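Exercise: predict the structure of this protein bound to calcium ion.
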Amino acid sequence: MKPTLTDLERLAREAGSILRNGYNTPHTVHFKGTIDLVTEADHASEAFLLGEIRAKFPGGHILAEESGNIQGSNADLWHIDPLDGTVNYAHHIPIFCVSIGFSTNGLLTLGVIYDPMRDELFAAEKGKGAFLNGKPIRVSETTELEKSLLVTGFPYDTWDTELDNFKYFERLAKKTQGVRRLGSAALDACYVAAGRFDGFWEFKLKPWDVAAGGLIALEAGAKVTTIDGREDFLSAPLSILASTPGIYEAVREQLRQGGDWAQASRSTSGEK
Ligand code: IPD
Ligand code: CA
Ligand code: CA
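Solution:
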């Protein structure tokens, strides 16, 4: 059985309430890398989501951040980030969410992102628009880089790689009203969808970070590609540029002038 948008909304709200209930308690933090954390809430939210999906929508393939690849039919593919913004959560900063994307035969069809601290539910179904708590949302009308507010993020291997995001950050911070770093890629994309930010870029992400957010931004009228302009923003090497159309080319041009990220990424990962 295929899920509906309402099914994803229910799952995201219930997983979000697990995060909200645990927010004010002391957290148990484990380290997946030097600065890559996981808390008890990531695991509790993911266990809930996987249990529900297996019971109600069996047979699909699930890509979940903490459990990896759960084999199933690729015709139905779930992208699960049970807690996007883990470092914020671990530090009791109330900026995080649950992100659930669903693809059918390789095409993203449903995306839901729930911010439990603000009770904001972002949702989109392919071809049917994007919504925040049931009301349609739209990207901003901005056409000038100088008047734009952007958002980005930094990869967890920032300490150890020259392929970080700092030179792009500096370049765009000097051409715009500013560049924010909220710490939740999924919410970054939703805030572009809602017209709060004018653009979002980041690289070295994982599919569960951007599947739902990418669809929500697209459905709200954003142009969403990889940083090097590919429309399939879930294909490797994974990066995202989600922007209101009025400044998309200008942001891309700045990123291009900052260096060929895709090429550098391929050579550090050994690809051609
Ligand atoms: C992270 C957040 C962050 C982004 C990182 C992601 P997590 O996800 O989305 O904003 O900069 O690249 O990995 O680890 O909190 O689920
Ligand atoms: Ca994430
Ligand atoms: Ca996560």
